[in-house]
Structures are given as C-alpha cells and as structure tokens.
C-alpha cells in the first residue's frame, strides 16, 4: 500500500481501493476501509506513520471492496462508523450483497468470498447524505447514488472523494460493463459531478488514478457516461423490431457489443445487475415493457 499526500491535511492510502485520510487536530477520519482485515491493518499502519489517531470511519458505499476492512479498524481502534441507511444495513448484514446479486435466493459459494461478502460491521451514525460536519471535522457529505443505492462522496478543502460514482477509463476498459444498480440515477449523479469537480484540485475516485486536473476528471466522468449510454442503446438494439426477448438474451447481446466475455458466475451476476438497471431505466421512460408467454417473462420495445 502506498501513502500519497494531497495537501497538509489529506492523504490517500492507495492499494486495491483509494482510502481517504483526513487529519484534524491530531486525529483523523478514514474514508472507506478496503477489502479485508489485512487491508484494514495496512491502513492503520499508514495512519500510524502520520502520527494520527483514527477516530472515525466514513463508508461511501457498502460494497465488500470498500467495507471489508471496517471490522478490523473498529476492533483495533474503537473508531465510530458513519454510513447512509441502506449502506449501513448491508454493512451490518453483509450477506445482503450476494443475496441481492443472486436475485434474493441463497447465494452459492462462488458469491460468498471476500469480494462479495465482507465481515459485518455496525454503523454508529446514519448519514442523510448532506452533512457538513463529521466527527467535528468540517466537510461536505454529497449524495452520489447510482453505482450503489445510497452512495455518498466527501468534499474536504480542495479534495473530492467520489467513491465509485465514476470509474477511471482503464477500469472501464478492463471490466467493459460497469456495475450500476440504477443507471438513470447514476447518469444524473454523473451530470452533477461534471459541474462540481472544477472547484477541486484533487478528485479521488474509489479506484485507480487520482486526478489533479478537473479537465481530466471530467473526461473520465464523460467516458463513464458514454459507457452507460452505450449500454442503454445496446439494450434498445437488442429489442429492436418489436422482438420480445428474455433478459438473459439482452445480457448476451450487450456483452457481445461491449466486447465482454462472461466466463464466471461472479461476472454474470454483476453484468446482469447493470443490464437489469438498463431495462428498468428504459421501462421507466416507457420505451420497453414486460410481456409474459409460456411461463417466460420477456422484454419488448414499445410499438
């Protein structure tokens, strides 16, 4: 893990995820906790180098790669945990993540490892998503839903921690179909982000490159928008000419159009969520509707 200083009071512990550290009067707020207890321990090691006492942990969203180290941080330090209502629920009952990915049924063992199933951790305080102070530290909590239902970002001084509201181009190109639970809301969030990042010197996404140029971060945000818009259009195309198709057929068409190859159950459930989010967005717009035939549920374009 690498410790990167952004300014006098702000650092990023960079590893599999970008972990924020905000210093205030000898103590610090940690933003997200990585994927497991080893990551949590690594975060504490880096914070110790700074001579800071960790007193608060703020979770941007409750995916296992952002919450897996939380239990270790609490056990080691007794710090207070802050999260929004739905994200806190998943943190306290981590089985909810693989459970919703597998349609509410008992998830198979392939979905019950640290990438989907974090160690449980209770939130001490539930965030609304517009707080101005956390643990006596002046900052701004900003609602950034889409990738996750109640994801938030944190603005502090000249730094904006955005969670996974947008993904860097290298990550998008690697995974092809980004994970979004709500594409329509995600696009609104991304539009809001474009208007806000210009006032920050550092824009820290949940993974990958730390941006020091607003123009470059806007390019990355626009690249995420473009990818989501393509997925919406590819979903429409899969249902062209009024042909009714199963969601699995739509998924196959979108994956092929994106150059993605589905070879694991993990990939399948993640990609399925995004395609279902695309169908939901188009349904809300009145562009598609479900039909039922021979005990199948199919999706069809509006005539």
Short recap of the structure:
With 303 residues, this protein is α/β, with parallel strands linked by helices. The protein contains ten helices and 16 strands.
What does this structure look like?
This protein is an alpha/beta fold. Helix content is 39%, strand content 24%. It is built from ten helices and 16 strands. A hairpin with a 2-residue loop joins strand 3 (18-24) and strand 4. It is globular and about 65 Å long. The termini are far apart.
| Secondary-structure element order, N to C | EEEEHEHHEHHEEEEEEHHEEHHHEE
Task: Write down the CATH class of the largest domain.
Answer: Alpha Beta
What fraction of residues sit in β-strands? 15-25%
3D shape: globular
Query: What is the radius of gyration?
Result: 20 Å
Mean pLDDT: 97
Helix content: 25-40%
**CATH fold category name of the largest domain:** Metallo-beta-lactamase, Chain A
Number of strands: 16
The helix/strand class is: alpha/beta
- Strand arrangement within the widest β-sheet reads 1-2-3-4-5-6-7
Task: Identify low-pLDDT runs.
Answer: none
Distance between the termini: 54 Å
Instruction: Look at the structure and name the CATH superfamily of the largest domain.
Output: Ribonuclease Z/Hydroxyacylglutathione hydrolase-like
**Any idea what the CATH architecture of the largest domain is?**
4-Layer Sandwich
What's the tally of helices?
Answer: 10
As for the number of domains, it is 2
